Amino acid sequence: MTKIMYGTELANKMRSDLKNEVEDLAKKNIQPGLAVIIVGDDYASKTYVRIKRNAAEKIGIYSKIVEFTDDLQEETLIKKINEFNEDESIHGILVQLPLPPQIDERKILETIKPEKDVDGFHPINVGRLSNNQPGFIPCTPLGIEKMLTYYGVEVAGKHAVIVGRSNIVGKPIGQILLNKDATVTFCHSKTKNLKEITKQADLLIVAVGQAHTITEDMIKKGAVIVDVGNTYLESGKVVGDVAFEEVKEKADFITPVPKGVGPMTITMLLYNTVLSAKTQISQD
Ligand code: NDP
Fold this sequence. Notes:
Elements: E1 3-4, H1 7-27, E2 33-39, H2 43-58, E3 62-68, H3 74-86, E4 92-95, H4 105-111, H5 123-130, H6 139-150, E5 159-163, H7 170-179, E6 183-187, H8 194-198, E7 203-206, E8 224-227, E9 231-232, E10 238-239, H9 244-247, E11 253-254, H10 262-283
Parallel strand pairs: 1-11, 2-3, 2-4, 5-6, 5-7, 7-8, 8-11
Antiparallel strand pairs: 9-10
Helix pairs in contact: 1-10, 2-10, 6-7, 6-10
This protein binds NADPH dihydro-nicotinamide-adenine-dinucleotide phosphate.
The site of NADPH dihydro-nicotinamide-adenine-dinucleotide phosphate has 25 residues, from helix 10.
């Protein structure tokens, strides 16, 4: 019988545990603080920021949102990040992407202090993950790792195939699984014979952003399938990259869309912010 891995279930449990941790920190007069910077008027970005703020406040994290117009100069953004870098009430700094073209995204991400980089995009944190050293791990892949552990999916020795090689999902989840002793193969838009490779996967992670990229004939019987994709149809419905109804008949474990990986991503942002506050206390 196929097990559906709901992210909502684990996300609710983790948020409740994090709320307790924030209450414990309050007894030591510490309130984790998250600064979110948004540039421009993009509707989706504004929605994500609102959801992040509400989720943070629900568990007692203080959040500070700074909004800039899309004609913002790079130096102004760097100055604001540096203020947050020095602000002791802020433990996590997040710059909502994408940024307008006059701003160099890499330079901005490198301005955030690695100790406050709760998105895990700073090259120092990317390097730490690559070296299997402690550091901030990007939220979506970290959420996937937590889900696999929660649902008892063994990783060591498995052939993990990752479809998608972005810096925010594909590469870091591959690195996490490699660190956990999986044998990892990356696929992308130039991969030839995708189906031949996905059919070998014991664990298939799909982060492409195109509905129905993975169909039933592309998977091995008994595989574990994690669908990261989000595509909004004209009807307003959101679907993943995997043809869920047909694939679920053949898989042993599968995440749905919605209610799969998505709810874990924001939970991991809260997790990283609380972790940052705890780490900073232990260093005082
Ligand atoms: P990107 O667009 O950055 O990366 C997509 C990747 O898919 C690229 O590596 C691309 O290859 C590869 N790709 C594109 N077409 C194909 C194809 N036909 N076959 C194989 N590989 C292909 O996307 P993201 O990683 O940022 O996001 C992926 C999806 O996950 C999106 O739908 C996004 O909305 C969703 N997402 C969901 C999150 C959540 O919390 N649920 C969080 C983050 C993302 P190449 O490198 O060659 O171009």
